[in-house]
């Protein structure tokens, strides 16, 4: 199984990146997890040539070719970082690779509450008509006190959180497998994934 993990911030010291790195190592025998950065994604705007920037196209291809996506988001001012929202806007207005794509949401924060508000907002965003991601239900992995959560080898030191993440991740694998079975009915799940700037100009895709 091939998964894509998206670091939802451009911070070089983010514990969300460390959380994905831990998962890549810890679950390496179960899945192939590629960690993707979004720092090089430009500010969202209609490009003159009406084509997505190369960095957006590259991320879109990785998502499209994956079996599922894991978003690791911090919480800024009770919501997701602007850089993550910016990236999602590019994806929703170009290739739309998240349509019918299984998604797991996780988050790390130094606060005791983790990233509960940000995760709630991210769920709402990913359920938008232009995105239609298949978000894993009933799972909310919140890693609080994240600055003390990893040792020098990158291992998660909170035993209860290790057990929780193990269970959540196994459930996500099952969710991806179930989704793949449902996707055999191509006609039922067929969606218009390709965005057109001309449609917006004509008021057809608002």
TrEMBL record:
<dbReference type="InterPro" id="IPR050712">
    <property type="entry name" value="NAD(P)H-dep_reductase"/>
</dbReference>
<dbReference type="GO" id="GO:0005829">
    <property type="term" value="C:cytosol"/>
</dbReference>
<dbReference type="Pfam" id="PF03358">
    <property type="entry name" value="FMN_red"/>
</dbReference>
<dbReference type="GO" id="GO:0010181">
    <property type="term" value="F:FMN binding"/>
</dbReference>
<dbReference type="GO" id="GO:0016491">
    <property type="term" value="F:oxidoreductase activity"/>
</dbReference>
<feature type="domain" description="NADPH-dependent FMN reductase-like">
    <location>
        <begin position="1"/>
        <end position="145"/>
    </location>
</feature>
<dbReference type="InterPro" id="IPR029039">
    <property type="entry name" value="Flavoprotein-like_sf"/>
</dbReference>
<dbReference type="InterPro" id="IPR005025">
    <property type="entry name" value="FMN_Rdtase-like_dom"/>
</dbReference>
<protein>
    <submittedName>
        <fullName>NADPH-dependent FMN reductase</fullName>
    </submittedName>
</protein>
């Amino acid at each position: 199984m091939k998964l894509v993990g998206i670091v939802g911030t451009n911070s070089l010291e983010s514990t969300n990146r460390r959380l994905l790195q831990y998962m890549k190592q810890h679950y390496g025998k179960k899945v192939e997890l590629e960690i993707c950065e979004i720092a090089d994604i430009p500010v969202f705007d209609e490009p003159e040539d009406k084509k997505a920037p190369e960095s957006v196209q590259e991320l879109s291809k990785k998502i499209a070719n994956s079996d599922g996506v894991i978003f690791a988001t911090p919480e800024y001012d009770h919501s997701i970082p602007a850089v993550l929202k910016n990236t999602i806007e590019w994806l929703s207005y170009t290739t739309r690779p998240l349509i019918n794509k299984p998604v797991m949401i996780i988050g790390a924060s130094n606060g005791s509450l983790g990233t509960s508000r940000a995760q709630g907002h991210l769920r709402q965003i990913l359920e938008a008509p232009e995105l239609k991601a298949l978000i894993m239900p009933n799972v909310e992995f919140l890693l609080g006190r994240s600055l003390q959560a990893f040792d020098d080898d990158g291992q998660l030191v909170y035993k209860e959180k290790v057990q929780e993440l193990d269970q959540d991740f196994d459930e996500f694998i099952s969710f991806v497998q179930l989704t793949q079975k449902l996707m055999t009915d191509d006609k039922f799940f067929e969606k218009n994934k390709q965005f057109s700037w001309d449609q917006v100009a004509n008021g057809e895709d608002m």
